[in-house]
Amino acid sequence: MKTITVNAIGDPCPIPVIKATKAFNEMQEAGILEVHVDNEVAVQNLNRLANSKGVKVASEKTGEKEFVVTMTLEGPVTASDAPAVCIPDARGDVVVAVGSNVMGNGDDALGATLMKGFLYAISQLEVLPKAILFYNGGAKLTVEGAVSVEDLKSMEAQGVEILTCGTCLNFYGLTDKLAVGSVTNMYAIVEKLNGATKVIRP
Questions:
Q1: Would you call the peptide bond into 83 cis, given omega within 30 degrees of 0 as the criterion?
Q2: Which ranges constitute the DSSP H helices of 27-148?
Q3: Cα separation of 106 and 56, whole Å?
Q4: Best CA proximity match to 69, nearest among 12, 181, 153
Q5: Are 77 and 27 in contact (CB under 8 A)?
Q6: What is the longest distance spanned by two Cα atoms in the chain?
Q7: Pairing of strands 198-200, 94-98
Q8: pTM (predicted TM-score)
Q9: pLDDT averaged per 10 residues, the chain (length 202)
Q10: Could you give the C-alpha distances from 39 to 43, 84, 168, 186, 191, in angstroms and in order?
Q11: Domains (ranges, CATH) in the chain?
C-alpha cells in the first residue's frame, strides 16, 4: 500500500486541510496519507476532513509541536471542490475522570468492553473534553497494551490532556509502561476537577 507524506508544519489553517484535500483528489488507489502538522487545531480539522470522507484516521503527538495524522484509504475518495473550512479549537471545559479500567458493576469482561466503547465515543464528540484524568484502576488504561491507547493518542494529538496518577501507576507496577499522556499527582487532579464546568465519571 503506497504511502504519501504531506508536510504542513508551519502552515496556518486551513492550508493543512487544503494540502490533504489535494492529496486525496490525486490518489487513484488504496493507500496511506500522512499529514505532518505542528498544532492541535490542524489535527482536529484533518480528523474532520477524514471523517467527512469516511476515511479511517489516526492521530499521534510525536514531539513538542509535532503531530502526525494518518489516513488510510481503501480506494479513491470522491473529489471535492468545497472550500476548506478551518474550525476553531473544538475543546470545551469538560473533564472526564476515569477511576477504573471497567465501566459499571457486574461482569468485568463486560465492563472492560463498555469502557473501551465509552472512550471511543468520547473521541468522536464534536466538542472534545479539556482533559481526561486516570486514577486508581483507570491508570491501567493508559499503559502499553491497553486497548484504548490509540483512541487516547488521537485525543491527545487534538489537544486533550491525558493525565495519569503517578501514585497509581507505581502501585500497580506500571510506572515505566505509560504509553500516552503524562504523569500527574492528586493535587493537579483536584485542580482540574475544580476548574471544570462539568465532570463526567463513567
A1: no
A2: 40-52, 108-123
A3: 33
A4: 153
A5: yes
A6: 54
A7: parallel
A8: 0.86
A9: 92 92 85 95 93 90 94 78 72 95 96 98 93 98 97 96 98 97 97 95 94
A10: 7, 17, 30, 28, 25
A11: 2-73 (3.30.110.40), 94-200 (3.40.1260.10)
